[in-house]
Amino acid sequence: MIKSKCLWFIVFLITLSSCKVYSFTGSSIPPEVKTMKINYFPNLASNAYAGLERNFNDRMRNQIISNTPLKLVEDAPDFELSGKIISYTISAQNSTVGTFTTTYRLDIGVEVTFIDYKTEKKTQWTQIFNGFEVYENDLSSIADATTRKISETISNQVFNKIFSTW
What is the pLDDT of residues 40-65, one digit of tens each? Predict the structure, then answer.
């Protein structure tokens, strides 16, 4: 009985790996893809928190390094990722006539371009990804933590777009 279950499990794992490389993070990568280039994402949004650019770039690189076996390279990559931070908007939430609001929403938008140089699909796309956080009172004391959270949200969206389509 136990041998039969083990045999079926081994067959299942072989079936998973026969067509593509599978990661238990939910991502799949074609076996011919070994490298990726992640270009620096400049901040083109006006009035943005100074640490946003660093926070987003660090988070995007860490997302790929931590969740894929891909090697980051500068020249001749199999996949390439580039883009720019395009929006940073703060808006008041829940205000009523005659009252001041203490709740605000920070929205960040990042335009991302992905190019697949290696596989038969030769996929290329450009898409805007957005993330937001709602906070109370003054952003200055929590700007770093808030932009890190939004950067994580957006980098997860980008990662899922790239690696869930194989």
Answer: 999 999 999 999 999 999 999 999 99
**Domain containing residue 38:** 31-163
- The CA-based diameter of the chain, rounded to the nearest angstrom, is 73
The average pLDDT across 5-25 equals 45
**Beta strand segments in the chain, E:** 21-22, 28-29, 35-38, 71-72, 79-93, 103-116, 124-136
- The alpha carbon torsion through 138, 143, 145, 147 (nearest 10 deg) reads 130
- Where residue 96 sits, what CATH number does that domain have? 3.30.160.150
Rounded distance, CA 105 to CA 143, Å? 12
Which runs of E-coded beta strand occur in 39-102? 71-72, 79-93
Q: Which of 57, 55, 79 is nearest to 68 (CA)?
A: 79
Residue 2 covered by a domain: no
Report how far residue 19's alpha carbon sits from residue 45's, in angstroms, rounded to the nearest whole number: 42
Q: Is residue 138 one of the residues assigned to a domain?
A: yes
Entry pTM = 0.79
Number of domains making up the chain: 1
What does the block give as tokens for 9?
């499990």
